[in-house]
C-alpha cells in the first residue's frame, strides 16, 4: 500500500467484506496471530454503541442460558464443533464493525447519488433559472420605480382592498358628485347595421337602441382618475373639426362583458394602443402619433377620509389601477367586491331619475346589454333532448377544445392578427358611443 497509493481505495473497500473472511481466519492454526494481522492490515473501526450493546447482550445470553451456551459456540464459529470461546467476542465485535461499515457505505453511496443529481439539475436548469430571475427582477424594478415615482404604495392598496366593508359602499357613504358627463350610445341590430330598415319584422333583435348615459363622477374620492377620465371627454368637444384629433370617448366602443365578474368593458378607443419606444418606455400610439402614457393612480387616496369605495351595486364606474389605457368598466351585478384590491370606483351610471327622462336610458341600456349574445371559448353543452349520453358529451368537449387550440396556435404562428379580435365574453352586437360631453 505504501508503494501503490492508488490501491488505498481498494483496501478500504475490502473493509466492508471482512465478515466473509472471519470464519476462515478462526479455523486457521495460528488464530491469534492472524487476528492481529487482520486488525492491523484491514484497519477495523469500532461499531456504533448500539451494535456493541447488542453484542454484549447476545454474549450475556449465550453465557447464562444453558441451551444457548450448548449451541452458542457452534453458531459463533459458523458451524465448527470446536469450543473456542475466544472467537465469540471477536465475531460479535466484527458484527458491529460490519454493520457500521455497511451503514457508512450506504450513506456514502446515497450522498454520491444526491450530489450527482444536484449537479445534473444545476447544469440542466441554470440558464432557465437565470432567465426567470432576470425577468422577475426586471418586472419588479419597473413596477417599483413607477410606484415610487407616483407616490403609490401597492401594499397599502392591497390592504385597503381587503379591508373594505359594507360601510364603504356608495349608498352608505354618498360621495359628493363633482362632475356630470354624458355618453350618447347606440346598439346595432343583430346584423350589425344602424340605418333605417322597413323590411324587417318589429322584434328586439331588429331594433336599434339609441340613448344617453349620464355619468356622475366622484372627484373627491378619486381626483386623479376623474381628471384622466374627463380629459377624454373634453378632447371630444374641443376637436370637432380637427383632421388629426386626439383620442376621445366620442369614438369609443363597449367591446365585451367579463363572464366572471359581469363587468361591462367600456371606453375602448379603436386605434389606441400601448407601444414600447426606445429605452423601454411605454407610450400611447394613436393616428400615427405617440402620446404620453401616464398611469391612472391616486396619490394619497383622495381628499376625503376613508375614500376607498367597495364595488357593491350596479352601474358603478371602475378603472384598473396602474393602467394607462382609458378603458373602464361598468358593474352589472350587485356584488363585485373581488375587484376591490385591483380597481377603484370613481363614479356611477345614473339608472333612473324622476326629474330627467333621459336618465332612464341607463337602466334600459344595462338591461339590453345583459341580454346580448357573447362569444364563448367553451363549447355548447349537449342537452338531454339530443339523445347523447354524458360520456359522448365529454368526448365532444375534448375534441372541440383540441381543435380550437390547434387552429388558434397555427394561426398565431402565421401572425394572424384576427386572433386579437376573438376573445371570451366579446359582444356579438355593435355597441358604440356617438358623442361625449360635459353636462
Topology record:
Blueprint: H1 8-15, H2 22-27, H3 31-41, H4 49-64, H5 66-76, H6 87-150, H7 154-162, H8 170-173, E1 179-187, E2 209-217, H9 223-238, E3 263-266, E4 273-276, E5 282-286, E6 289-292, E7 316-320, E8 328-331, E9 343-349, H10 361-370, H11 390-413, E10 431-438
Antiparallel strand pairs: 1-2, 1-10, 2-9, 3-8, 4-5, 5-6, 7-8, 7-9
Produce a short descriptive summary.
The protein is an alpha+beta fold and 439 residues long. It is 41% helix and 13% strand.
Any key phrases for this structure?
439 residues, alpha+beta, Cyclophilin, 2 domains, seven-stranded antiparallel sheet, three-stranded antiparallel sheet, 11 helices, 41% helix
What do these coordinates show?
41% of the residues lie in helices and 13% in strands. The chain is elongated, with a radius of gyration of 41 Å. It is built from eleven helices and ten strands. By secondary structure, the protein is of the alpha+beta class. The longest helix has 64 residues, at 87-150. The model is unreliable at 16-46, 66-100, 140-165 and 302-306 (pLDDT under 50). The chain has helices spanning 8-15, 22-27, 31-41, 49-64, 66-76, 87-150, 154-162, 170-173, 223-238, 361-370, 390-413; strands at residues 179-187, 209-217, 263-266, 273-276, 282-286, 289-292, 316-320, 328-331, 343-349, 431-438. The relative contact order is 0.11. The strands form two sheets. The chain has a seven-stranded antiparallel sheet. Strands 4-5-6 form a three-stranded antiparallel sheet, with no helix packed on it. It folds into two domains: 5-111, no CATH class; 154-381 and 424-438, Cyclophilin-like (Cyclophilin). β5 (282-286) and β6 form a beta hairpin. Residues 200-381 form the PPIase cyclophilin-type domain. InterPro entries: Cyclophilin-like_dom_sf, Cyclophilin-type_PPIase_dom. This is PPIase cyclophilin-type domain-containing protein. The chain crosses the membrane at residues 46-63. GO terms for molecular function: peptidyl-prolyl cis-trans isomerase activity.
Amino acid at each position: 500500500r505504501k508503494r501503490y497509493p492508488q490501491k488505498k481505495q481498494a483496501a478500504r473497500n475490502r473493509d466492508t467484506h471482512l465478515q466473509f473472511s472471519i470464519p476462515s481466519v478462526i479455523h486457521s492454526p495460528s488464530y491469534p496471530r492472524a487476528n492481529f494481522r487482520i486488525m492491523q492490515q484491514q484497519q477495523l473501526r469500532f461499531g456504533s454503541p448500539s451494535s456493541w450493546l447488542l453484542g454484549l447482550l447476545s454474549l450475556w445470553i449465550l453465557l447464562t442460558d444453558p441451551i444457548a451456551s450448548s449451541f452458542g459456540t457452534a453458531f459463533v464459529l459458523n458451524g465448527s464443533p470446536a469450543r473456542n470461546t475466544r472467537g465469540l467476542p471477536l465475531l460479535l465485535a466484527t458484527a458491529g464493525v460490519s454493520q457500521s461499515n455497511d451503514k457508512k457505505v450506504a450513506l456514502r453511496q446515497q450522498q454520491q447519488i444526491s450530489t450527482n443529481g444536484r449537479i445534473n439539475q444545476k447544469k440542466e436548469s441554470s440558464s432557465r433559472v437565470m432567465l426567470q430571475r432576470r425577468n422577475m427582477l426586471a418586472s419588479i424594478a419597473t413596477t417599483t420605480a413607477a410606484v415610487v415615482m407616483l407616490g403609490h404604495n401597492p401594499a397599502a392598496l392591497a390592504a385597503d382592498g381587503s379591508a373594505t366593508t359594507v360601510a364603504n359602499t356608495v349608498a352608505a357613504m354618498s360621495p359628493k358628485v363633482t362632475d356630470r358627463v354624458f355618453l350618447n350610445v347606440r346598439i346595432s341590430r343583430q346584423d350589425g347595421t344602424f340605418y333605417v330598415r322597413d323590411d324587417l319584422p318589429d322584434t328586439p333583435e331588429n331594433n336599434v337602441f339609441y340613448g344617453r348615459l349620464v355619468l356622475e363622477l366622484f372627484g373627491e374620492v378619486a381626483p386623479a382618475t376623474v381628471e384622466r377620465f374627463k380629459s377624454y371627454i373634453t378632447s371630444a368637444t374641443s376637436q370637432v373639426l380637427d383632421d388629426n384629433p386626439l383620442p376621445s370617448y366620442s369614438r369609443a366602443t363597449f367591446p365585451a362583458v367579463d363572464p366572471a365578474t359581469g363587468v361591462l368593458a367600456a371606453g375602448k378607443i379603436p386605434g389606441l394602443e400601448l407601444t414600447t419606444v426606445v429605452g423601454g418606455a411605454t407610450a400611447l400610439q394613436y393616428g400615427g402619433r405617440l402620446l404620453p402614457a401616464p398611469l391612472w393612480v391616486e396619490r394619497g387616496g383622495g381628499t376625503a377620509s376613508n375614500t376607498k369605495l367597495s364595488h357593491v351595486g350596479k352601474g358603478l364606474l371602475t378603472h384598473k389601477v396602474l393602467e394607462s389605457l382609458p378603458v373602464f368598466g361598468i358593474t352589472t351585478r350587485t356584488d363585485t367586491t373581488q375587484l376591490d384590491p385591483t380597481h377603484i370606483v370613481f363614479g356611477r351610471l345614473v339608472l333612473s331619475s324622476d326629474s330627467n327622462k333621459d336618465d332612464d336610458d341607463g337602466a334600459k341600456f344595462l338591461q339590453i346589454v345583459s341580454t346580448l349574445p357573447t362569444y364563448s371559448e367553451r363549447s355548447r353543452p349537449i342537452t338531454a333532448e339530443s339523445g347523447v349520453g354524458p360520456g359522448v358529451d365529454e368526448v365532444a368537449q375534448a375534441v372541440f377544445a383540441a381543435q380550437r387550440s390547434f387552429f388558434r396556435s397555427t394561426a398565431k404562428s402565421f401572425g394572424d392578427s384576427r386572433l386579437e379580435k376573438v376573445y371570451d365574453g366579446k359582444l356579438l352586437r355593435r355597441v358604440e358611443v356617438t358623442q361625449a360631453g360635459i353636462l
